[in-house]
Amino acid sequence: MPATPAPRLPHADRTLVMGVLNVTPDSFSDGGRYLDADAAIARGLALVEEGADIVDVGGESTRPGAQRVAPREEQARVLPVIAALTAEGIPVSIDTMRAATAAAAVEAGACLINDVSGGLADERMAYVAADTGVDYVAMHWRAHSTEMDDRDRYDDVVAEVAAELAARVDALVRAGVSEDRIVLDPGLGFAKVGDSNWPLLANLGQWSAGRRVLIGASRKRFLGAAISRHPDEEAGPERREHATTAVTTLSAAAGAWAVRVHDARSACDAIAVVSAWQDAAKATR
Question: Model pTM?
Fold first, then answer.
């Protein structure tokens, strides 16, 4: 275990900001920038300086078409970064689908497991979440990156995501995970290429069943499609930041527990505006 107690998840009366830290060569937005451990640690510290409450460290890309990496490589990428950041008192989450990586990350100091597969990619994950006692993000997921776009088939995306997330919650609870430690994520961009994403954002309360919600829309393809000025033009990841901030604002207003973003400063500013607006509304009732 860490020499000092691992940092805990923060509690706040506002939406939390989870800063993305991809220790990968191939993530869709910033792949390769922080593959070196020192660069990754420096970026994690910068995210906190910009206002991030949690730093989400991942060692395997889940972009569309991404190939999986070996568990040993994934852990070699993330564990030194997690240990260094938690030694600085920074709350860290581990972004992984592997139970072994999650367990090692918690041992290194992570206080949250962020599993984009909701436990479907590794049946041992639920037991690791139960045994470690940390909070666990269960994301809606249907398939790995190489085939997930083909699984964007819904008659009623809100109802189907709600049912599939409820099934994951049931499985986690049966494995021993405390219900109050489960956070839900609708899986924006995962088996949801374009228009399937928007109903989930617009109807957050319908699929979340009152649980804490993490929204991870940052720089994703469906935002690029929404802001494109021409049908045959795609706005690339770097052009999607203003759209990301808009989703952060709306998510905070809807009561999301946290947003997962690349630009922590913009997210913090948006959440501060929402908080000021809501405080004023309460004061004038």
Answer: 0.93
